[in-house]
Structures are given as C-alpha cells and as structure tokens.
Design a protein that fits this description.
- This protein has about 110 residues and is α+β, with helices and mostly antiparallel strands.
- The protein has a single domain, classed as Nucleoside Triphosphate Pyrophosphohydrolase (Alpha-Beta Complex).
- Helix content is about 20%, strand content about 35%.
- The chain starts with a strand and ends with a helix.
- Bound molecules: 8-OXO-2'-deoxyguanosine-5'-triphosphate (8DG).
- 8-OXO-2'-deoxyguanosine-5'-triphosphate (8DG) binds next to strand 4.
Length: about 110
C-alpha cells in the first residue's frame, strides 16, 4: 500500500494530498533527502527504492521539480506530525484523492500499475 499525506490549511496547496517528502538540501542526493525527511516528518525508517517519476510543475508560488520513489517501511510506523492526515491506499484507490497538481503524473503511473 502507498502512504498518502494531506497538507494542512496553513500551507501552500492547502488540503491537497501529496507523497511524504520534502526539499533536497545542498550537497544531498534525492534519495538521502527523502530518507531524512521521512525520519524527521514521519518518525520512521525507510529504504528508498526505484524512481517512479520526475515532473516539473509551475505553481503561482514557484517551480517544483518533483521526483517520486518507491520506498519500503523498514522500522517504526509513520506518525502524523506536519500533515493534517495520512492514509495508506491501494494503488487503484489513489485517484480518489485531491492531489497536488505536480503529483498527477506519478499518481497515474502508480494507478495504472
Ligand atoms: N513533499 C512533497 N511536496 C510536494 C509534492 N507535490 C508538490 O507539489 N509538492 C510541493 C509542496 C512544496 O511546495 C514543495 C515541497 O516542499 P516541502 O516538503 O518543504 O513543503 P512545505 O510546504 O513545508 O515547504 P514550504 O511551504 O516551507 O516551502 O513541493 C509531494 O508529493 N510531496
């Protein structure tokens, strides 16, 4: 199943759903950034696997370069800290959520297997 997270109402893209993650810091690989963000934000440990997709989306607040990876939960359980809610969904259920626009291509790839 796939972990989906809903953004809070104090943020840009309020109430939109996204894949947990965050911004890559200087000198960091994308995979290391994802592992770090999940440890910080969800208080659990993951193994980052193969890339699902890469998209570039221009929002009114800026351009987001979004890379999405398959991950496996290896220790702990995701905890709700920064998000409004989190949900585990089967890939076929992903399209029922209101996703951030940058995520739509990745969601469609996952939904279509
Ligand atoms: N983590 C994550 N961010 C996403 C996704 N789709 C998408 O458009 N974004 C956007 C939201 C943010 O503008 C940016 C990620 O930055 P972030 O994780 O630090 O989010 P944030 O809102 O806390 O950052 P900020 O407002 O402080 O800039 O990418 C997604 O699936 N996952």
């Amino acid at each position: 199943m796939i972990l989906c997270a809903q953004r809070g109402n104090t943020k840009t893209l309020s109430h939109k759903w996204e894949f947990p993650g965050g911004k890559v810091e200087q000198g960091e690989t994308e995979r290391a950034a994802l592992k770090r963000e999940i440890e910080e934000e969800m208080e659990c440990h993951i193994e980052v696997g193969r890339q699902v997709d890469h998209t570039v989306y221009e929002y009114d607040f800026g351009i987001v370069h979004l890379t999405t990876f398959y991950c496996i939960l290896i220790e702990g359980e995701p905890v709700l800290t920064e998000h409004q809610s989190i949900k585990w969904l089967h890939r076929e259920e992903l399209t029922t959520l209101d996703w951030a626009p940058a995520d739509i291509p990745a969601v469609e790839k996952l939904a279509n297997g």
